[in-house]
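To: structure subgroup
Subject: Chain for Friday's discussion

All,

I'm putting the inputs and outputs inline so they're searchable in the archive.
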Amino acid sequence: MLTIDEAHGRVVVQHTDGTADEYRLDTPEAFEAVSAAWLRCGWDVKYVYGFTWMGRPVIQLPEDMIRIQEVIWRLRPDVIVETGVAHGGSLVFYASLFEAMGHGRVIGIDVDIRQHNRTAIEAHPLAKRITLIEGSSIAPGTLAAVRHNIAPHETVLVVLDSNHCRAHVQAELELYAPLVSPRSYIVACDGIMAQLAGAPRTAPDWTWNNPIAAVDAFLERHAEFALEEPAFPFNEGVVRHRVTYWPKSFLKRR
């Protein structure tokens, strides 16, 4: 149980074993505890469903969007490959960054690109920077189509945001990791599932059937990748705790 006492400037975390930790409100530990509660509350009220990017629903936590923007700006990839299209908001977000930089394009993959979403994406002013591929992200034909759209010399960043069960993410990691350029990333989104089990719209197996479990298994077999939190390019404070739906998500190729 979490108690936030603003009057006395403290946060108290009571554990199931009867013990408790108390932190001043201005400490990283307090910020981390309050952030975890905020994330859970945000999940319950479907907070991330309230945003769009340039007209398309994006369904992402704004902080995650800012963080991956920092990575994209620093890396300047030629191509972003994203599995999972939904309404296309993330594709448009990445395309808008590329448009601002004057360079780059995004490939979006989904097993079912609904016609109204396809129509809206293809009619968007940034459609010239977006390629849509319909099919299972782990099907050989889909992967072949992705490879066909990437030139050998191009720098590639991959974002996995489709089916988030362990087996599917593991398969995506194995298939798409070879596309990732040295010093670039493959990002396994929505590891927050591991801490949300028991919340509304979750399943009991989320404690183990989640992207983090897939990441852990992948890293045991692939020394060429390392779990690496991207650098904080600007931070005048002391708190470096990310408020994120993507914990343990950024895998950097050495």
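Points worth raising on Friday:
The chain is about 35% helix and 20% strand.
Helices lie at 28-44, 62-75, 89-101, 115-122, 140-148, 166-176, 193-196, 211-221.

D.
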